[in-house]
Amino acid sequence: MPSPKYVETILCLANSRRPGGACVAGKKFESNKIGDWVRPINAKHGNSISGKDAEYKDGTSADLLDIVRVSMSAPAPSDHQTENHQIDDGFYWRKTGRATWTQIVNATDNIQGPLWSDGDHSYHGLNDKVDEAIAKGLKGSLLLIEPSKLELVVASESKFGGGSVRRVRAKFTFNGTNYNFVVTDPWIETKYLAEPDGAYAVDGSRLCVSLAEILNGSATKLVAAVITSDRL
Known about the structure:
8% of the residues lie in helices and 46% in strands. It contains 3 helices and 14 strands.
C-alpha cells in the first residue's frame, strides 16, 4: 500500500462551518509538545474539509479537541493563510487522543497588541475586518487567545441584499481592545440559537480566531471555536 508524503499530528482547535464543508485547524502535537498551526484543506472542495475527508476508520469523524493524525500531500499556503496543507484524501484520519485543559492552556498564543489589524469593521461587527492590502502582508491566519469579558450575543441581523438572519457573535476584550466577531463554531451555534435573544457571559474560555480568505477587498475575522473546560 502506498504511503502519504507526510503526516501531521494536530491538536484540533477548530472544526467550524464554512461554505462547502468545514474549516479544520489545530497545532502540531508531537511528544506532548505544541508546535505550529496547521490547517488541513482539500482543494477539491474549495479548500473545505468534508465529513468524508475527516473520517476515521470506524466511520466517525474528527472533532474539536481530538488529537488527530492527518495524511498530507503538500503545503498549500495562500496569501495570509500560510498554515494550509493539502490533505491526501486516500487515507483515513486517525485519532490518537483527546486534549486536556492543560494542553489547551499551553497551546494559547502569547499575543501582544491587536488581532492582526484593528480599525476596520463590518456593519454589525467591531474590529472584525482586515483590508486586503494588509492581509496579504500577514504571516498567519490562526490564533488561540484568552479573551476577557466574553459574551456570546444572540440576535437577528440584517443581511446584505435584504432580509435578516439570527446569529451568534462573540463580544470580548483582548489586550484592552473591544471586538465583536461572528461565531462559526457549530456546537456553540446549536446551543445558543436554541436560547432567547440576549447576551450570555462565558468565563474561563479560549477562542480560536481565524482570518478568513479575502472576499470583496477584505478578510473577515471569525471565532472558529469557543473552548471551555466543560467541552473536554
